[in-house]
Amino acid sequence: MLTLKLPLEPAYLVPAEDEVLFVTNADLRESANVECWPVEADYEKRLASALEKLGRRARRAHPIKPDKGHGFISSQREGSDVFATIDPHAPVIVLLTAWQYSHHLANSLARHRGPVLLMANFDGTWPGLVGMLCMAGTLTSLGKPHSRLWSETFEDAFFLDGLKAWLATGKIVHDVSHLHRVDVTHPVMKTEAGRLGQRIGEWSLRHKEIIGLFDTYCMGMMNGVFPLKALAEIGMPLESLSQSDLLMEMGRVPTALREECLAWYEKRGMTFLWGDDGATELTRDQVLEQCAMLIALGRFVDRFGLSAVGVQYQQGLARACAASDFAEGAIGSTERFPIPTEDGRIVRPGKPIPCVNEVDMGTAIPQTMLFRLLDGFGLPAETTLHDIRWGSEFEGEFYWDLEISGSVPFEHLKGGVAGATGHRQPPMYFPKGGSTIAGQGKAGRLIWARAHYEGTTAHLHVGVGRAVELPTQEFQRRLNATTKEWPLLNAALDGVSRDQLMAGHQSNHITVAYVPEEHLAEVLRAFVAQAITQNLVVDVAGSAYSML
């Protein structure tokens, strides 16, 4: 007869009638957790005060860790153990005031039966809002109902009313009327632009847009890892590549070719802020290593016939080589160092290669589609992703601060290559250094998009907007409030308010491509038709819907 021995199960943590349980999640990197802890501690007090106003008490569901210098959940094991002790039916608030790795909690939240509220501060320096959008997109992908709430202070009426509603009903209903479902029966499919978009979509389904990613699952972004069936259905299969192989390919790039590459960008006017101390300053050796990565990436694109390429970097390569961002931004540019194959051919001259920062498949999809469409129309075809990092009003209008860790195509910056500055990547996140491609996003009209999945079906949100060049003082204020070493794009999204985007967007990332004003409506119609043809479920956002 078999016997079964399991560890003794502790009693569930069951909150008192007036108590509300909350957990706090953050980074895998303890240096970041220690840095971000004081802000989290402050917002815990704000949460407690808000609950007191509503007759409730906040109760932490896991202890602060004095030996670590913070009270965040910082691994999937820890998150799983915490939720193993929580009453499965208890309402739980997930308080987020920094970047967080969603997989620490997402699998436990997906099985939790009680109401879940994702609560974030709305701040540029301590971007809990970015972490919340990532977790929200992840839970949507896992099919877990949840609510979202965000605030700068935790004291405004929007926040308190939302919290009150969640305490009473277990959910918050936000305004997402900006999203309009469009399918194959919509008249856009019969427009001239729509017919052209269908031709692009049919071509992609027939020939396949292969996305080459060097490892996946970056920084806990479960929302960026799509089911293979979802990718197969839209004609965009994955070529799974290894970062260890990328390192080997980089090692085969000779010193002379690395030097030639760096000299090419210096000759075109990029400013590198050189220093001597590699631990805190940018050195030539770091950028030469990034040039080797650029060349290696190009050779993999050529070897595997890739439509797009991306590097995970943050886990693994971060401890092995300089940051991937310069290489990723450079390969995504049309004005690019001519990358030679080993037999002397130049890889894709005159064309950008869509580059998928942080191997996020949810941006790989619209980036690759927009590239194929814009290139087919003979229009500038550079694409990128940005974090939805923050935003605030200027002269009565709300502008988003869209920012990514350095990997924008030069054509998206004011001044192009000559307008770019190479800062050393912040040591807290990038111990091996490396240059960013920093600068102000240029003014212009744009299409924005984001893909997510529900079950094994790919969805796409798409809208239009305008990038603006804010006055120097205002731009600098925003840059100083975010990460000053990174490129910053300021944009207004047509017909979509701040809170609508926060309520309905399914990711911390957003894809953008510039489109000339005179072609914007045609390109939008073609893009929507292209997406529908490639079997994506499409929602058109805000004012873009009236342009179809």
Describe this structure in words.
With about 550 residues, the protein is of the alpha/beta class. The protein folds into 2 domains: about 20-170, Rossmann fold (3-Layer(aba) Sandwich), CATH 3.40.50.10940; about 180-545, 3-Layer(aba) Sandwich (L-fucose Isomerase, Chain A, domain 2). It is about 35% helix and about 20% strand. The protein is built from 15 helices and 18 strands. The protein has helices spanning about 30-55, 75-85, 105-110, 130-140, 155-170, 190-205, 230-235, 245-250, 255-265, 285-305, 325-330, 360-375, 470-480, 500-505, 520-535, and strands at about 20-25, 55-60, 90-95, 115-120, 145-150, 180, 210-215, 240, 270, 310, 385-395, 395-405, 420, 445-455, 455-470, 490-495, 510-515, 535-540. α6 packs across α15, α9 (about 255-265) packs across α10 and α10 (about 285-305) crosses α11. The model has no long low-confidence stretch (mean pLDDT about 95).
CATH fold-type name of the largest domain? L-fucose Isomerase, Chain A, domain 2
Strand order of the largest sheet: 11-12-16-15-14-17
- The helix-and-strand class reads alpha/beta
On the 0-100 scale, what is the average pLDDT?
A: 97
Total number of strands: 18
Computed CA radius of gyration, to the nearest angstrom: 23 Å
Total discrete domains: 2
As a percent range, the share of strand residues is 15-25%
CATH superfamily of the largest domain: L-fucose Isomerase, Chain A, domain 2
Looking at the overall shape, the CATH architecture of the largest domain is 3-Layer(aba) Sandwich
Total DSSP helices: 15
The shape is globular
Low-pLDDT runs: none
- At the first level of CATH, the class of the largest domain is Alpha Beta
Cα separation of the termini: 70 Å
